[in-house]
Specification:
The protein is α/β, with parallel strands linked by helices and 434 residues long. The protein has one domain: Type I PLP-dependent aspartate aminotransferase-like (Major domain) (Aspartate Aminotransferase, domain 2, 3-Layer(aba) Sandwich). The strands form three sheets. Strands 1-9-8-5-4-2-3-13 form an eight-stranded mixed beta sheet, sandwiched between helices. Strands 7-6-11 form a three-stranded antiparallel beta sheet, with no helix packed on it. The protein is globular, with a radius of gyration of 23 Å. The N and C termini lie far apart (64 Å). The structure holds pyridoxal-5'-phosphate. Pyridoxal-5'-phosphate binds next to helix 4 and helix 5.
């Protein structure tokens, strides 16, 4: 890029995005947001000037760096975390997996509380989601509840590390091995979280990530699926790229060196491999501009992880004094979460309701969120739907939905915001402390 253009982009960044000054009570405290500098603008513009635009060398660069980071062999970029989940589950329906291939009617164990697109691919593939309750402290499904959900029809476990909090992975892996189950880790909220000192995502047969701005790093929109299994990788690419059998990168031809040498299905011999379809696929690729921005964000990940962990710790320490009012989050032994948010669940019998405190905080410009959809089964889309199984009464999911909310810990929150958050909570709670 020409030096003058570089300088003018840097200047643009300085003018348009001056360092924010925090004014307590006036400046909003969001739950999440993009944190970036001129590097993201420079990389994004470089990808535009490159003139390629669809998935290209920036995407390849990101995939390589992400594989190195996670220690997994294959990375497939997609246009969202939801797309990542969709192709992750769909890939397991590929015929190459023989008896283990997912088919309509097979059961997939998932958690009742969370984000809908962790669950939707199960329904979209004609499989049966089996919903288990979430724990009030970890907000994850427990090992006991997962064990209870296993039946002869169970083929997979697909669930999120809720709010970045690692699942009981060791136990899940044992179950997966014992019952020959696939394990898909939804790490959309958990990039940077560790379990036994390894990044989450490196444990399951597949793992998914989201790069929407709320997440640990962003591309605007974007996602990824990772796996070390070459057959899964091939199926992922097929589902992502229109269902085609051909594995050429975008813009490349004849990687297999026999483009006109295949005979598949009932097609004429030598039919162009580029247009042979072995899956009912989609097009879920991203653009090189997104990948370029992602590359700059990836460099900032260690700093972002530390900031989230420090913010979480400071809030945890603060809320110890209010334990009588709130259930705070706990994590598995040997895990080190990179938290997505700081969640509080109001205890039964507390002298205020979720709406009382959430309205108060929002009035003070401190943003709050529910644990996404809460108990998904209560939503119009899932209510009374057939082809689903539920384990138990989902009492915790209902409680989290009724009495839970979370506030931000993202790197845009620093000491001044934390002090303000703490002061507002103290002001609200003081009158109830006797
Ligand atoms: C656990 C989980 N899975 C999947 C998604 C979907 O990601 P995206 O918004 O990129 O589609 C989200 C979104 O925040 C999420 O929290």
């Amino acid at each position: 890029m020409d030096r003058r253009l570089r300088e003018s982009i840097k200047q643009h960044f300085k003018n348009k995005f001056p360092p924010p000054k925090f004014k307590p009570g006036i400046t909003p405290v969001p739950v999440s947001g993009k944190v970036f500098d001129e590097q993201e603008l420079l990389k994004g513009v470089a990808a535009v000037l490159d003139g390629w635009w669809t998935e290209g060398h920036f995407a390849q660069g990101f995939e390589k760096a992400f594989a190195k980071l996670t220690g997994v062999r294959y990375v497939t970029l997609v246009n969202s975390g939801s797309s990542a989940n969709l192709i992750a589950l769909s890939s397991l329906t590929a015929k190459v997996f023989g008896e283990r291939a997912l088919k309509a009617g097979d059961e997939v164990i998932t958690a009742a509380t969370g984000f809908p697109t962790t669950v939707n691919p199960i329904l979209q593939n004609g499989c049966v989601p089996v919903f288990v309750d979430n724990d009030l402290e970890t907000k994850n499904a427990t090992l006991t509840s997962i064990k209870k959900a296993i039946s002869v029809k169970t083929k997979a476990i697909m669930m999120a590390h809720t709010l970045g909090n690692p699942l009981p992975i060791a136990g899940i892996l044992e179950l997966a091995q014992k019952y020959k189950l696939w394990f898909i880790e939804d790490c959309c909220d958990a990039l940077g979280s560790r379990y036994k000192n390894k990044l989450v995502g490196a444990f399951g047969h597949l793992a998914t990530f989201s790069f929407y701005p709320a997440h640990q790093i962003t591309m605007g929109e974007g996602g990824a699926v990772i796996t070390s299994n070459p057959l899964i990788f091939r199926a992922l690419r097929q589902f992502r790229d229109w269902g085609r059998d051909c594995w050429c990168d975008t813009g490349k031809d004849n990687t297999c060196r026999r483009r006109f040498g295949w005979q598949m299905g009932e097609l004429p011999a030598g039919y162009d491999h580029k247009y042979i379809y072995s899956q009912i696929g989609y097009n879920l690729k991203l653009t090189d501009m997104q990948a370029a921005i992602g590359l700059s964000q990836l460099r900032k990940l260690p700093r972002f992880v530390k900031a989230r962990q420090n913010n979480f710790k400071e809030l945890s320490d603060f809320f110890e004094q209010y334990e009588r009012f709130f259930i705070c989050s706990k994590s598995e032994p040997e895990s080190k979460p990179c938290w997505f948010g700081f969640m509080l669940v109001i205890r039964d019998g507390a002298p205020f309701t979720r709406l009382d405190i959430v309205n108060y905080l929002e009035d003070k410009h401190i943003a709050t969120r529910s644990l996404f959809g809460g108990n998904l089964l209560r939503h119009p889309a899932y209510l009374k739907r057939s082809g689903m199984r539920v384990i138990g009464q989902l009492m915790n999911s209902d409680k989290i939905m009724r009495d839970g909310f979370w506030i931000g810990v993202y790197p845009g929150i620093g000491k001044p915001q934390l002090s303000y958050i703490k002061k507002c909570f103290s002001d609200f709670l003081e009158k109830f402390v006797t």
